[in-house]
């Protein structure tokens, strides 16, 4: 079978190249699910996980897993920014444009506009749509579902992934040019998944992401005959006023031993900021609120005002209601 392509592009001095995708399951129906990763070419967790998931779904479709079936049609686009993945680049390498800032795109426009238009055209007929990101190279994200002004169906379905957190965020003007925003005009249910950090691969997050996607496909009736492990899922839903961004009041070297996914207490010492020359401690980093650490700075060089971590609170003590862009990677 030939591999379908999203778009074929010609280049001045080499053969044409294209963006391949997987079209799996019964072709005579509209796609039930569209899974997208690699809009940003340096966010490798999603690219890797979707390529592995496509292999798994291909086996189901080919009957290689007795008793397990692919009941619905699924589109999998592992690497939209295919050149960026090859060059470790977030943006489209030729013109440095961020593909997730040009939606809904334009047929007959610049290359990135054509990619956006083709991707939207391909995916808009699916009922469930999932766009997978990592954060930027400085911040690590706990694998979670992110919802932007969701409806009640999306709130309910977001829990089917079984990830440790579902986090609601407000829409803002910058996000009006993202794929997730463009999907909203076409109904259905739309999700952004965040996992890990850009620049390299975090296998632990990849495993969690893979399990989450399989759980979602099983629970939404797309794949059949699969037993999910009955591992206890510890899922929390966080509304708009439940995100607290801890910002640094000091420049320096930030050192901490926390991991994303850990719970912290109010007043807990979570790290230190050192003077990078004298080695003296400039500040203790103390969390003013209790909650789940969903984002954590991994780049130690800190300027005043940089985000150190994002904490999801169980009450409404969040301060991050204005959709600050720190490390969104999206
Ligand atoms: Zn991204």
From TrEMBL:
Organism encoding this protein: Plasticicumulans lactativorans
GO molecular function, one term: metal ion binding
Cofactor(s) required for function per UniProt: Zn(2+)
Pfam families xrefs: AstE_AspA_cat
Residues in Succinylglutamate desuccinylase/Aspartoacylase catalytic domain copies: 31-215
Name under which the protein is recorded: Succinylglutamate desuccinylase/Aspartoacylase catalytic domain-containing protein
Keywords: Hydrolase, Metal-binding, Zinc
């Amino acid at each position: 079978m030939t591999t379908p392509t999203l778009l074929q592009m010609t280049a001045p001095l080499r053969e044409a190249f294209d963006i391949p995708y997987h079209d799996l399951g019964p072709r005579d129906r509209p796609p039930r699910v569209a899974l997208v990763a690699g809009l940003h070419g340096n966010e490798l967790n999603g690219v890797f996980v979707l390529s592995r998931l496509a292999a798994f779904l291909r086996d189901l479709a080919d009957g290689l897993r007795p008793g397990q079936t692919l009941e619905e049609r699924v589109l999998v686009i592992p690497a939209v920014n295919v050149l960026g993945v090859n060059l470790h680049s977030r943006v489209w390498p030729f013109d440095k444009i961020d593909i997730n800032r040009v939606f809904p795109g334009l047929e007959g426009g610049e290359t990135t506009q054509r990619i956006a238009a083709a991707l939207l055209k391909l995916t808009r007929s699916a009922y469930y749509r999932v766009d997978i990101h990592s954060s930027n190279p400085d911040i690590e994200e706990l694998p979670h579902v992110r919802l932007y002004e969701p409806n009640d169906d999306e709130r309910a379905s977001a829990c089917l992934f079984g990830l440790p957190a579902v986090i609601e965020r407000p829409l803002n003007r910058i996000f009006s040019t993202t794929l997730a925003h463009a999907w909203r005009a076409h109904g259905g249910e739309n999700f952004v998944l965040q996992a890990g950090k850009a620049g390299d691969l975090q296998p632990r997050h990849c495993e969690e992401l893979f399990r989450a996607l399989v759980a979602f496909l099983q629970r939404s009736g797309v794949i059949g005959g699969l037993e999910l492990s009955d591992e206890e899922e510890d899922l929390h839903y966080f509304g708009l006023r439940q995100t607290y961004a801890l910002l640094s009041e000091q420049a320096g070297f930030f050192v901490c031993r926390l991991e994303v996914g850990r719970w912290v207490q109010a007043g807990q010492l979570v790290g230190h900021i050192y003077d990078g020359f004298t080695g003296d401690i400039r500040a203790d980093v103390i969390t003013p609120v209790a909650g789940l650490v969903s984002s954590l700075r991994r780049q130690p060089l800190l300027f005043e005002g940089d985000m150190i971590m994002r904490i999801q609170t169980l009450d409404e003590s969040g301060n991050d209601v204005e959709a600050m862009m720190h490390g969104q990677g999206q």
